[in-house]
Amino acid sequence: MPSFDELLPRIHVVSLPLVTRFRRVTEREAVLIDGPEGWSEWSPFLEYGDAEAAQWLHAALEYANDAELDLADSGSIPVNATVPAIAAAEVPALLERYGTVRAVKVKVAEPGQTLEDDVARVRAVREVLGDDVLVRVDANGGWSLEEAARALEQLGAFTLDYAEQPVASVEDLARLREQLDGRVAIAADESIRKASDPLRVTQLGAADRIIVKAQPLGGLRRATEIVREVGLPVTVSSALDTSVGLTMGAQLAARIARETGTEVSPAGLGTAALLRADVTRAPKRPVEGTISLAPVVPDRDLVEQHAASAERRAWWLARLERCLPLLP
Ligand SMILES: O=C(O)CCC(=O)C1=CC=C[C@@H](O)[C@@H]1C(=O)O
Ligand SMILES: [Mg+2]
């Protein structure tokens, strides 16, 4: 693994404006790494501790440096549109940003909102896109067990592909899944972060599917191993990455499909549509419901234009220096 001094000249810290508030932020900060094997991204959320951010760093450095990763050199993968916790009236305009898609994921259980807001948002999605698209909801663990049961009985009327992390704990996921008895499938997202997590999710029968993300799980190799271990269907997702990170995610989806002989389920990698600016002139915004696997080379002018402030750059460099010795 490279040292801090080796990395320094290869690093660009950017801050990209979002079209709408997501996870309570309106700007997405990311570190781009110009690695020997191509461009990579390190973008752990700001509130994450160093140990967790070091997992994300492992992923970024693997992608930048590992010549044996065996990346797909052409093709594309299907993605879902992601609808943040916006008002139902804003749904049609937001969906337009994605063009034609076969799947949509709708954020629900936003603090300060009600179940009626969620129902209205999901109804608006069905009204715009009809009955043929897959509709998923993602609560980010925001419901209690009782709230989740009630919400999913109501939202189930719109025919859901699955509900992502409706409740926070693995135990509650298992209880909810039993109560729902197959009426709505359950996907585990936040419950799958550490290497030991997947085993627990399967042992407790807590989910029908797992969500995997390249950065939080420490990279393409580890994430693929976890998927093999769990043996459940998978959706690959991302963390509101720039087009560089989205491509890493697309490569993960292609790799999992190849190694497990399964089809790629529409991935949560359509979120370039939620960025008001990106680091490339050819952003990975969905085209006919897919994004390509082609590597991204950031545009120098765009990287400069969206460079983070000196203060934020210093914050990221300090974080990097602390995380390097913590690499798993
Ligand atoms: O999966 C998607 O459709 C897009 C990505 C997405 O939903 C997320 C991105 C960033 C942070 C996460 O809270 C969130 C998720 O929970 O999956
Ligand atoms: Mg999620």
Automatic annotation (TrEMBL):
<comment type="similarity">
    <text>Belongs to the mandelate racemase/muconate lactonizing enzyme family. MenC type 1 subfamily.</text>
</comment>
<feature type="active site" description="Proton acceptor">
    <location>
        <position position="213"/>
    </location>
</feature>
<protein>
    <recommendedName>
        <fullName>o-succinylbenzoate synthase</fullName>
        <ecNumber>4.2.1.113</ecNumber>
    </recommendedName>
</protein>
<comment type="function">
    <text>Converts 2-succinyl-6-hydroxy-2,4-cyclohexadiene-1-carboxylate (SHCHC) to 2-succinylbenzoate (OSB).</text>
</comment>
<dbReference type="InterPro" id="IPR010196">
    <property type="entry name" value="OSB_synthase_MenC1"/>
</dbReference>
<dbReference type="Pfam" id="PF18374">
    <property type="entry name" value="Enolase_like_N"/>
</dbReference>
<keyword id="KW-0460">Magnesium</keyword>
<keyword id="KW-0479">Metal-binding</keyword>
<feature type="binding site">
    <location>
        <position position="138"/>
    </location>
    <ligand>
        <name>Mg(2+)</name>
    </ligand>
</feature>
<dbReference type="InterPro" id="IPR029065">
    <property type="entry name" value="Enolase_C-like"/>
</dbReference>
<dbReference type="Pfam" id="PF13378">
    <property type="entry name" value="MR_MLE_C"/>
</dbReference>
<keyword id="KW-0474">Menaquinone biosynthesis</keyword>
<feature type="domain" description="Mandelate racemase/muconate lactonizing enzyme C-terminal">
    <location>
        <begin position="88"/>
        <end position="183"/>
    </location>
</feature>
<feature type="active site" description="Proton donor">
    <location>
        <position position="107"/>
    </location>
</feature>
<feature type="binding site">
    <location>
        <position position="189"/>
    </location>
    <ligand>
        <name>Mg(2+)</name>
    </ligand>
</feature>
<dbReference type="InterPro" id="IPR013342">
    <property type="entry name" value="Mandelate_racemase_C"/>
</dbReference>
<keyword id="KW-0456">Lyase</keyword>
<dbReference type="GO" id="GO:0043748">
    <property type="term" value="F:O-succinylbenzoate synthase activity"/>
</dbReference>
<feature type="binding site">
    <location>
        <position position="164"/>
    </location>
    <ligand>
        <name>Mg(2+)</name>
    </ligand>
</feature>
<comment type="pathway">
    <text>Quinol/quinone metabolism; menaquinone biosynthesis.</text>
</comment>
<dbReference type="InterPro" id="IPR036849">
    <property type="entry name" value="Enolase-like_C_sf"/>
</dbReference>
<comment type="pathway">
    <text>Quinol/quinone metabolism; 1,4-dihydroxy-2-naphthoate biosynthesis; 1,4-dihydroxy-2-naphthoate from chorismate: step 4/7.</text>
</comment>
